[in-house]
Design brief:
Blueprint lengths: L2 H14 L1 H38 L2 E5 L16 H11 L8 E7 L1 H11 L4 H5 L8 E6 L5 H8 L5 E6 H44 L1 H9 L4 H42 L8 H32 L1
Antiparallel strand pairs: 1-3, 1-4, 2-3
Length: about 300
């Protein structure tokens, strides 16, 4: 097969259907940008889960009089009740599931709150009576938090037991929803790109129907006839994929690491390395879809 002839046919197809080719490039670029963004968002969610879930604890809040909780009978937890909870957390029944236990007095909790919210109205209005002692329980496996919660809840002097992961769940649910939405938009756009590539190839073949008829008469094989059309679709998708890859890398470089990482320092974000890992996936997906859709389109046209 002559490479020069094939490339000349591809160039001719581009010139005759320039507007359609540009449309394929743009639609492919937009759809693959959403596709790449969905992958990066899942990587971000996984990274944040690993970071925050490893640090999440089960907190056992002891009774304080000011809250007047029913299970506390309107009184502070006594020293005996606090010691009973400590001994239970260190007992052999659940100790194997616990990595370590920390205890924070009411004074320490108040001082920490004042430090974290210094200068705010809520810090000025708060009093030490609003805070009580609490145990922080770091689990070996955070997924077994229910075991500790069930065993401690209801003990005398215990006001409430909270798994900090429950506070993070709404945030991850929101990010998952955004990721799935992005993936859905990407899927719709990819379907549009496939249909557009098929239409472009059929139009290109129709505009060269006389040449194709002559090639058939002289005995050219189907592979020889199909190759320029498949390459035409692949090249258009490749350009769109490269533009999408550049867009994804630019988003991570200028928005994630250049803006979010600087303005939200307490969170970990994905970087350029993760973006570069997504680039081959974007290009591979674009080229594969274009090759398949172009191949199917030209074969159907030649059989018609």
């Amino acid at each position: 097969m002559r490479l020069g002839f094939v490339l000349a046919e591809v160039g001719q197809g581009f010139r005759r259907n320039l507007s359609m080719v540009v449309s394929v490039i743009l639609v492919t670029c937009v759809s693959l940008t959403f596709f790449g963004a969905a992958i990066l968002l899942q990587l971000q969610i996984g990274q944040m889960k690993g970071y925050w879930y490893d640090r999440a604890e089960v907190t056992v809040y002891m009774c304080i009089e000011v809250l007047n909780a029913p299970q506390c009978a309107g009184a502070d937890a006594t020293e005996e009740q606090i010691e009973a909870v400590r001994q239970h957390l260190e007992s052999s029944s659940i100790a194997s599931r616990i990595e370590n236990v920390t205890f924070q007095t009411a004074e320490e909790a108040y001082a920490r709150f004042q430090e974290e919210f210094a200068g705010s109205t809520v810090a000025e209005l708060s009093t030490i009576e609003s805070f009580g002692p609490a145990f922080g329980v770091k689990l070996v496996d955070p997924n077994e938090s229910d075991v500790v919660i069930d065993s401690v809840s209801g003990m005398p002097g215990v006001e409430e037991v909270k798994d900090q992961r429950a506070l993070l769940k709404p945030i991850f649910d929101l990010m998952n929803a955004a990721s799935y939405t992005s993936a859905g938009v990407a899927a719709l756009m990819l379907v549009a790109a496939v249909l557009l590539i098929s239409t472009t190839i059929r139009l290109s073949a129709f505009s060269r129907r006389r040449e194709l008829a002559i090639m058939r008469l002289v005995g050219a094989s189907n592979r020889f006839i199909e190759t320029p059309f498949i390459l035409e679709g692949v090249l258009a998708a490749l350009i769109g994929s490269l533009l999408a890859s550049a867009g994804v890398v630019a988003i991570v470089q200028f928005f994630v690491t250049g803006y979010l990482a600087e303005n939200v320092p307490n969170y970990t974000f994905i970087g350029i390395q993760e973006a570069l890992l997504v680039v081959p996936i974007i290009i591979g997906a674009g080229v594969l879809l274009a090759a398949l859709s172009a191949s199917v389109a030209i074969r159907r046209y030649l059989k018609a």
